[in-house]
Amino acid sequence: MFYSKKLLKQKDIRHCFFNRKGGKSKGIYRSLNCGKGSLDKKNHINANLIIASKNLSKTSNKLILLNQIHSNKYFFIKDHKSKKNKLIGDALITNKRKIILGVLTADCVPILIFDKKLKMISAIHAGWKGAFKGIISAVIKYFMKNGSESKNLIAAIGPCISQKNYEVQKDFKSKFLKQSENNKIFFKNIRNKTYFSLNKYVNFQLKSFGVKKIDILNKDTYNPKNNFFSARRSKHKKENDYGRNISLIMIN
Question: What residue numbers bound the domain in which 21 lies?
């Protein structure tokens, strides 16, 4: 389990970035696989979701998750009954107490945001596609539309794949440079190979909205020593599937 030092100082919320430790799953999913989209046994996944949720709250039935699609779509959660709906998108927002917002990742960036004045939170799943399409700006704009000021926002950029392990193709880089020439700072060329920094790209987007209180948890999900699930590492090992890490936030 990993925490943002900046978010830990906020007594109104609880949060956590989980790796793969402490769950019930076996084999390639060992052990805290929280991904319902994986081929893991459903009873193991459900047990793992309860384990993770109970780190934040005594009642695990208040957890809200998404069917994530690498989009810029978000949902405002009015009450815990929202979990009955099929939420298809990549970010959750609420100002209600005792509702746990969660996102799943396996190299992508989990982002947790708290407005300490409005008492509003968000959990964002930001892969390169979602970040590129504007999921971060969509959430921040929603906060600001509802009275948020950037000086009151605290953001934590969770564990994700590091630049040194994120090799990309030339067309990938071209896409980003078409969006903005300034994006070239997120790429590095080493021995005719191109590498992309996803968390720096996410950090830049947050800063562009004036968010200054940002924590970056520099834990590489690809590195097996850190004990995270990693889609890219699983692919390189020729495994047929992979588990998902969960990141949670809740207003007390």
Answer: 5-162+197-251
SS3 (DSSP) at 126: strand
Is 209 within the bounds of a domain?
A: yes
**Domain annotation covers residue 187:** no
Non-local CB neighbours of 225 within 8 Å, separated by 6+ positions: none
Instruction: Read off the pLDDT of residues 88-114 as tens digits, 9 standing for 90 and up.
Output: 999 999 999 999 999 999 999 999 999
Contacts of 196 (CB under 8 A, 6+ apart): 128, 163, 166, 168, 172, 173, 176, 186, 187
- pTM > 0.90: yes
What CATH number did the domain enclosing 66 receive? Answer: 3.60.140.10
Q: Helix crossing, 135-145 with 198-208: angle to 10°?
A: 30
> Which residues in the chain land under pLDDT 70?
60, 81-84
